């Protein structure tokens, strides 16, 4: 069974390559772990982890995406290996890349998709999706949701939000690689446009739905990163379905444009 690998932040992990091939994971004061790369679906790694280059390359050759996050939980890098197989969506994206309006097709689709995600998430929270008669934009919607979480839980949920982000982004990386199969189309098909970041941004609103299950007891007994890892795994199927629906929507839009 394939499973993700989450390297906990704040620990000086070292990752090297062992026979198998396997990842040899160690840290001072901790028992070493050996994990077969063939059993990994994705890896989330803090930037402070010391990776042996051979270990990272072995992951990429096996099609295991590795996502790096900083101390604030923000994604700083996506590593994908090469894939020969390309999907129908890949073909449509390659055509779009060659069209003068191709980038605009994708950004227009992303704005519309974000609007749908915002409305759905606000309604699940029982919050109005408009302010002063106008639809709420992302900053206002984000602020309203954060205030709602704070009022419900009695404190800021910033650390929990930040902890959820890299784990959700790792699922995005895995699904995009599986469904598009071409790293060059995921990472900057247009200058300044990274499909991984686009999809992670759309899943931001799903993060608030996961956070809706955080209780005051969770705040007291579980560190943010541990709670986030289990929370994302519990919602893994729903998140994958959401990504699949977004990919299908993008494919429909591109097909209507390129014929």
Give the structure's gist in a few sentences.
The protein has helices at 53-61, 88-97, 102-124, 138-153, 158-180, 183-186, 195-211, 216-221, 224-234, 236-258; strands at 3-6, 14-18, 22-27, 30-36, 40-46, 50-51, 66-69, 75-79, 130-131, 134-135. It has 259 residues and is α/β, with parallel strands linked by helices. Helix 2 packs across helix 10 (236-258).
The tally of structural domains comes to 2
Bulk shape: flat
Low-confidence stretches: none
CATH class of the largest domain: Mainly Alpha
Strand content: 15-25%
Note the run of SSEs as H and E: EEEEEEHEEHHEEHHHHHHH
How many distinct beta strands? 10
CATH architecture of the largest domain: Up-down Bundle
Average predicted confidence as pLDDT: 90
Class per helix and strand makeup: alpha/beta
The major β-sheet equals: 4 strands, mixed
- Termini separation comes to 39 Å
How many helical elements? 10
Radius of gyration: 19 Å
Q: Please estimate the helix content.
A: 40-55%
Can you list the strand order of the major beta sheet?
Answer: 1-5-7-8
Can you give keywords for this protein?
Ribosomal Protein L15, Chain: K, domain 2, alpha/beta, 259 residues, four-stranded mixed beta sheet, Four Helix Bundle (Hemerythrin (Met), subunit A), 17% strand, flat
What would your notes on this structure say?
This protein is α/β, with parallel strands linked by helices. The protein has two domains: 3-64, CRISPR-associated endonuclease Cas1, N-terminal domain (Ribosomal Protein L15, Chain: K, domain 2); 88-258, Up-down Bundle (Four Helix Bundle (Hemerythrin (Met), subunit A)), CATH 1.20.120. The protein is built from ten helices and ten strands. The chain has helices at residues 53-61, 88-97, 102-124, 138-153, 158-180, 183-186, 195-211, 216-221, 224-234, 236-258; strands spanning 3-6, 14-18, 22-27, 30-36, 40-46, 50-51, 66-69, 75-79, 130-131, 134-135. The strands form three sheets. Strands 1-5-7-8 form a four-stranded mixed beta sheet. Helix 5 (158-180) packs across helix 9 (224-234).
